[in-house]
Protein 1
Amino acid sequence: MAKRPATIIHVAEKARVSVKTVSRVLNDEPNVTPDLKARVLAAVEKLGYSPSKAARTMAGSRSYLLVAFNDRRLTLDNWRSERGNEWIDQMLYGAMLRCEQSGYHLMFELVDRESDQLEKQITAVLSSLQPDGVILTPPNCENPVVLGALKKRSIPFVRLNTPVRGQGPRVYMDDRAAARQATKHLLGLGHTRIAMIAGDYKFSSSILRVETFEATMEAAGHPVPEARIYKGDFTFEAGVAGARALLDLPDPPTAIMASNDQMALGVVSVAQARGLAVPGDLSILSYDDTIGVRLSAPSLTAVRQPVAKMAEKAADMLITASAAGEKQIAGNTLVPFELMVRASTGPAPK
Amino acid sequence: MAKRPATIIHVAEKARVSVKTVSRVLNDEPNVTPDLKARVLAAVEKLGYSPSKAARTMAGSRSYLLVAFNDRRLTLDNWRSERGNEWIDQMLYGAMLRCEQSGYHLMFELVDRESDQLEKQITAVLSSLQPDGVILTPPNCENPVVLGALKKRSIPFVRLNTPVRGQGPRVYMDDRAAARQATKHLLGLGHTRIAMIAGDYKFSSSILRVETFEATMEAAGHPVPEARIYKGDFTFEAGVAGARALLDLPDPPTAIMASNDQMALGVVSVAQARGLAVPGDLSILSYDDTIGVRLSAPSLTAVRQPVAKMAEKAADMLITASAAGEKQIAGNTLVPFELMVRASTGPAPK
DNA sequence: CTCTTAGATGATACCGCTCCCATTCTCGTC
DNA sequence: GACGAGAATGGGAGCGGTATCATCTAAGAG
């Protein structure tokens, strides 16, 4: 009863044409008469035929597969702590749907940025899966080992949301402008003692945000003392520790900006524990705008990263290039961010 | 510079053995002397060789690929509304990590349960991807078209979290016991006027939960009038509509149980809008226990579904069977649920 | 010491497709 | 009317593995 799926040969026989002609029709190649084309399509329909990806990959120059390399530690940490992983969620949404449109597939891989096996891991995936393109997320998109492995094999790739230029095509948002706008939002509310909980400096966005924050504050006449920058690592716990350290300063901040949502939620929990009203006593601003900050009490003002759009665009670039047989991906794409003003930021206390 | 990956032939040459011997080593087949095995492994290492999945799929009887069929509508709705999709997240976590351990891969497919092309969609995926196994989530795991297509092609599959037995192997939780425990939790708090917002009846868990709720109430001497069951469809909006309808009853409930998290959050929003204290005036209990209900204010008491564990187990069953060359999957697996008691349920008001 | 037998290895035919290279056919051209 | 260009089709060689089967070796039996 194990019904074997139909092959291209069955289709060819049924349509009374050569295998090659079927292939032409399937791949929309030119020089096929409408008559034959119709016969082939009819046979395909009747047999419920769908070409084997494996065979196509072997024989042809395309595999109809994109791979997304995510950071293993970051990803697993999020999963384990049951915080969910909206980055991945949104990537799936954006990239997968785009892939589907063109008969492509998307595969997730977790790679360990700290492992000395990193290059081997990447290489193994590339040679066993032979993807037509790769999507890199931070911090992989800034990792020379990862980039080197891809370049050595001339696998087209697109980097998601890295501010680092010159290392290949990327789809990104303007981190600098976002940090500036976020800072100005707080300044506009009358805050002058603003602190920041930075992200892991292995992510260059983290550095950029801090720098821009400092520059913007300085320009407004409120230079930021070093103590008001806390180095975090994107975890909830870092948010808690950072908030405590910052609020224990002799001149505690009236607003705290966190470089991602989980740290911001950590800040919220500390504020609540200390009986500080948000935003009455303390304003809180976050980056990422994942679901947690929209549902938290109060809902958080946040810089929204259009992850789904970025992923969709990245997939689009890779598929387009692959379909055209190009190994080189065209230019960069800037996608707009948005400052979602919600209930966690308000006028500075007197 | 496009370095071609090494093939099994290169390995064979380097190790001075036949291609077949390399294949034996790679697949842990018996009857290879340690000497040769060592030579082969050394060559593999030196060349950074990793066998092509495509070639293996074509030549062999395994593809090292599992496919998870998710419901397209449900999934996309969740994504579009930016509520996230923790089911998928957790499946990735559980199933993907299990796959990784055995050199397998997991691929997500969205299929439209309402489409008349459903069977064609499934068939296309099966014949183009040739997965070694399929994981089905509700409501696909109860869809005769889906099940039929899989059976026709003898593709092993495991159904996740369906109470329907006799249609193939499944990994599931005891919905009946969960509904009973949830109901008793509320009864224990003194509630007698308890209402339920049911899920889409296309998911048989929905029906089971309602029935068990009714039976448990009846046994406790508090039969549930029909008006206290609202038929929802798993959306936030259904939760809102349901809460309004139920609270507008002449004898409004003191507790509402919702068949999933989004509907429960809808109930919370109505309660807040009407100035009802939770749980002072109204207790709320939910199913699924996704991240939203843990972060909401107040955090919700919920029946936790161990989705990651279920997915891991499902992947495990499929991989084990596939490795053993069996087309038949062994039995069912019951995984434990847990009632997470949080701040949204409390003693019934006087 | 020959015969059996199981273990160890290799040769080779595919698997289902794409790609390169004929081959045939139809025109338009001089 | 012979000839070349280009369109329409087909033939057949791989792609990189696995599976079947043949071959060869060495250990144990009589």
Protein 2
Amino acid sequence: MKTVTLNDVSRAAGVSRSTASLVLRGSPKIPETTAERVRLAMTELGYVYNRHAANMRRSESMTLGLIVTDIRNPYFAGLTMTIEEAAHTAGYTLLVGYSRDDVERQSLQLETMVQQQVDGILLLPATGSELNAVCGIIDRSSVPVLQVARYFSEELDYVGPDNIAAGQQLARHVSSLGAASAVLIGGPERSSARTERIEGLETGFTGSGVVFDSSLSAAATTNNAAGGSEGVARVLDQGIWPDCIIAYSDAVAIGIYAELRRRNLEPGRDISVASFDDIAMAELLLPPLTSVSTYPELIGHQAAELLLNRIRDPSLRPQRSLVEPALKIRASTAQWRPRT
Amino acid sequence: MKTVTLNDVSRAAGVSRSTASLVLRGSPKIPETTAERVRLAMTELGYVYNRHAANMRRSESMTLGLIVTDIRNPYFAGLTMTIEEAAHTAGYTLLVGYSRDDVERQSLQLETMVQQQVDGILLLPATGSELNAVCGIIDRSSVPVLQVARYFSEELDYVGPDNIAAGQQLARHVSSLGAASAVLIGGPERSSARTERIEGLETGFTGSGVVFDSSLSAAATTNNAAGGSEGVARVLDQGIWPDCIIAYSDAVAIGIYAELRRRNLEPGRDISVASFDDIAMAELLLPPLTSVSTYPELIGHQAAELLLNRIRDPSLRPQRSLVEPALKIRASTAQWRPRT
DNA sequence: GATTTCCATTAGATCGGTCTACCAAAGGTC
DNA sequence: GACCTTTGGTAGACCGATCTAATGGAAATC
């Protein structure tokens, strides 16, 4: 079965290929009578527009690339879906890759996307991304790259939560409960997001009397439930029993709940737990989890907008956009009281 | 900044464009000395391969399309990630769309993907998909489409769990507990997966004495936590108090837990809860959730394999591949005993 | 009536690769 | 020396759109 091209259509409609092309794009130069005739020929022959051919000539592709680490974390899933939605409404298709937080894999995916002529890339950088690792590919092609949720370079656009504010909000809440000590558990050790959250927590705790330690479980923990369990185990096995455990993310907090219970400790009663992200699950857990909402939908939407702007005008200076977080207080901390 | 083409490279290396092209594809006809010279010119000029141009000539695109309903359901997230992985290792890039279980949106995404010249499409059909809604686009382009996890047509390939077996396993387990009544809650009403699960449950319950009702909450419930809460509310508000609630999926079960507790009923003690999918969360819930694992990784992997086979040989007859499920018994049903 | 403007339409180059068909020179065979 | 084969390489058509510059004819202007 031969594919139907614009040539076939134009021949059937008795016009030139150029005319058919103009009809396709709804040019006002073609009178309705002719246009109708061409459109009829299209449906009759079962014509399918070949975007690749068009894009080749126009040297754009109407596709965006999106690389995220892992969508089994609902936070990233929500982010991804919003970005897809924004891209689609702007007429773009989305090429996705999951780096699984592996720089090597991420490089390959960047390379592929560039070869596929994407018009822009949204990158949620794998931990350990550095400019020179990513740069070569980006430089060679001059594709605009926007960093989402984490960043490693000041020279590229960035959209993410205001992690410092988020940390501060959480710290103030925890100290207002009267806790004496808190630890941070989980999260990708060298990511900007983690560093900023720690910074926020530290400044938020200053002068409050709460002893805060972010170093207890940092190494080798990951941004999922397993990382949470492992982190709790490591802390408690050191004989440390903080008043409040702060999880790097809700995904981590879920593992923290599980590990606490394995040790017959009830979250929210024996140890408070609080977290970042506020995924839908947070509210449905028992006890409901106190979490700082970082609004992935907003971030995704803004990221897509900003990238599309840059595609239109590549000369813009690098931009940073921070989304304001909001603390959601729930039973996992609200019921806290000093041990007797 | 002008883009560097094969022409530029060949000129710099003092060979013809044809030779450069052959080097690119590692042809054995070109001796290593020449190849090296060409490769040097490539890196020196910062050449980036233009896949679109190549694909245009070869009339393939090395991209696959994937349309799923919603990846905030971890089951679909896992499925999606496996498919991406399989596609990437086979050298394909993935174009994704999230239908949000909306047929209209799904049609648009199919259309776009076909225009983008994808070599094949993996479709997790939105509920209400019918052949004629999808067919037009598919027919016109003759792109191979494979159905994942749900199906609506016997003429297209299908890979999914053996839902009937899954239902039977669950039914037998529930009846072995001595339950007298069970209801099914949640799930997309007209999907093949739900119909099959009900069929499996019904045959599994036959002769066991367990009264099973799947009609109580069917209408208008969805495949997520909200659907679960709503479903439980509707059932209990009718004055029905089953011994066991069977959730369409783990995502639904999470909402069921929440709604039961809102009514001061403890899942696994006052009412047993069991479910399908066995996402990672199932084990971490309190009480851990009995669920039939349907192995999204296996399904995703097989789906990608099968689609790639069909792309290689489009003349194959439509294939069906069912993945065997496995029941994971946990505390949400294990602790069940008759009310006194 | 001559010239200009406008309208509808088109021929042909172009995007950046791949592929077919062909060629020139070197080496081998009788 | 004539003929065949192998090696290394190339010219130019081609994929299916878009876009520029041009054209023929009708209407409008002087």
Protein 3
Amino acid sequence: MAAREYGQYCGVTRALELVGERWAMLIVRDLLVGPRRYGELAAGLPRIPSNILATRLKELQECGVIRRAPRSRVIVYELTPYGRELEPVVLALGAWGFKAMGDPREDQVITPDAMTMALRTAFREDIASTLPATSYVAHLGLAELLVRVDGPRLDVSRGDGPVDLAFATGPEVRLLLSGDLSPERAITTGAVEILRGPGRLLERFTRTFHLAA
Amino acid sequence: MAAREYGQYCGVTRALELVGERWAMLIVRDLLVGPRRYGELAAGLPRIPSNILATRLKELQECGVIRRAPRSRVIVYELTPYGRELEPVVLALGAWGFKAMGDPREDQVITPDAMTMALRTAFREDIASTLPATSYVAHLGLAELLVRVDGPRLDVSRGDGPVDLAFATGPEVRLLLSGDLSPERAITTGAVEILRGPGRLLERFTRTFHLAA
DNA sequence: CCGCATCCCATGTGATACTG
DNA sequence: CAGTATCACATGGGATGCGG
């Protein structure tokens, strides 16, 4: 059970001893979106074996990265304050890995929590501050995200609601975020389907959210 | 040989598929300091089995993170431009892991490359810019680092030379970087030994390099 | 049902030895 | 010096079971 060690007195090795095991960082990624139950984590990580999930949850608790939410009737896992400090790591990993994402394969899913963190990664706080407050609903296969941008603040939650623009898309969202697919073309080619609201707001979306490819 | 996949269309998972295997990020860490030969990498990662090192080097080449340096007579590994973009990830990991570093154990070593990256992590560019150019030699067990700070620029290399301040220390350098041990106390208690130059420059060192604990 | 625990097998890892 | 080869073992993956 003792985490395998690297035998070095170094911050990077220490970090990897805590969250470097397979699946661990993905549990952290999903918990960065919000507290989650065991089943919710399992649903967000479709290919994780249940014994591994249970083991990781135990290890991450032991080393102070996550905890069971106190005074909650049901069992809910959440990040500790120290665990929440992993956000810069996850964002940096996401930005780097984004550039290596090819086209999606059949066996790859887009989960709501992964997409939420991707939007946080792509969020341009400085640019958003110059734009009027805007809310979006983005349908991405399974994920249905309510995205509210207000100045430098970003809030992403699940669900639907009254928003300025609602649109549906698929994995093409990657090209939209990287700028390889213009909002106009995305609409005319059908890569993005406008559900409600003026389609021109999609351009504002792409200015608010951008990731280099 | 095909990297184990997570089955998600997501930047974080893609990144972990490329550099999430055990030891991979540490190879990247050391190559961020500079190109290295096979034997140098093995020396910087004392506990890595040779077959694992060989395997990782092959995988990292295949996925475009590292390469054998071209037109070099001997075999030298270096990061590709894309691999070099992992620096923010390694720095973020190092900063986070630093907070979880306890006191060093007998079986833990401090390697020159790990220490170099730790200094890069701790470097306060903005503060350094306000201070006069200063060069240091830091002896840390095996590691003997020549640290040159000139405005916002930092250069760390191995070796010795004429510098403003030369000092020797051990794992206590962690307390020095976190501010839990003041430069004065470090000198009076012998945690830091001044070899050459005025000891008061150690205070400038700690202002230039700082990591939150 | 939810939150795991158990079992079994495939694969990855680690230590050591060895080679071009 | 820069890796392979080999083998024992730990970990991961997938299916299944099971108590609260």
Protein 4
Amino acid sequence: MNAHHLDRIDLHIIKLLQSDGRITNLQLSNEIGLSPAPTLERVRKLENQGYIKSYHAVVDEEALGFNVKCFIQITINLNVPDARNKFIQKINAIEEVVECHHVTGSSDFVVKLIAKDMKGYERIILEKLSKIEEIGHQSSMMILSSNVKPALPIVIEK
Amino acid sequence: MNAHHLDRIDLHIIKLLQSDGRITNLQLSNEIGLSPAPTLERVRKLENQGYIKSYHAVVDEEALGFNVKCFIQITINLNVPDARNKFIQKINAIEEVVECHHVTGSSDFVVKLIAKDMKGYERIILEKLSKIEEIGHQSSMMILSSNVKPALPIVIEK
DNA sequence: CGTGAAACTTTCAAGAT
DNA sequence: ATCTTGAAAGTTTCACG
């Protein structure tokens, strides 16, 4: 699965579906300059070969009441055997954990967590995070505001 | 714009569109137990009122050749007037910067950056990041692996 | 909110380049 | 090997009840 099998049209399809996940196949075919049938066939190929993984609506977190977001930097307690894998399993099972990144540097993991308010945040820390014995040290950064781009910088050559 | 105008059906629609952004209105109407017409009307309302912001395909970053990802913690040089706003503008203009979070703690910002390889990464640091005079100090964490959940933990009460 | 009908989109098979 | 066409099946969208 590498990018060598993708031609300009495939990259164009990926770019358009990334910026509008609900574009119709007909609109898509018009934009890329093919008829609907081969357009659909290419989209299915991109999905089946794993280039396109899924489609999602992006919701307004604040509008839905998620007003507290933070990153937590975590170091693993190396006294516990197989600590990394156990930690990964436990941390991802927490529904308020929306991202978990294994990283290099002075921390082992960066975890993103969301909650409706500070009381909810406190509850997650006390009842869920602090019960994970594989955690050695943690340090949190509250997110004040964010800019998240919905698409990768795909460049279509030639 | 707050969550008090959303009933159980609205939350159910949001949940389903978050987990499958390309579900048809007909399937959606079947799942929530309404006919297609009022279902579509509710979806349009959720879009127009800003609860649903957009729809996107999620692509496999590695399959598209983006093999280098990192978080960079940045502190702002407070000697420059209006440094925060200038920094935000400049950092978001870099196409390889896919996220920028203003945070509390010892850093001012956490920036997520993607590149195809280490050479590309070096080029971004040398040619783009290091030219932002508002940056005081920076420290990077390479991402080894990630788990990102595509949906918020929406709980439908009652 | 539901029904029904018109307009539009998806999808497939057949044939062209 | 990949494209276009055209037709059937399915979906969206609107007016009306």
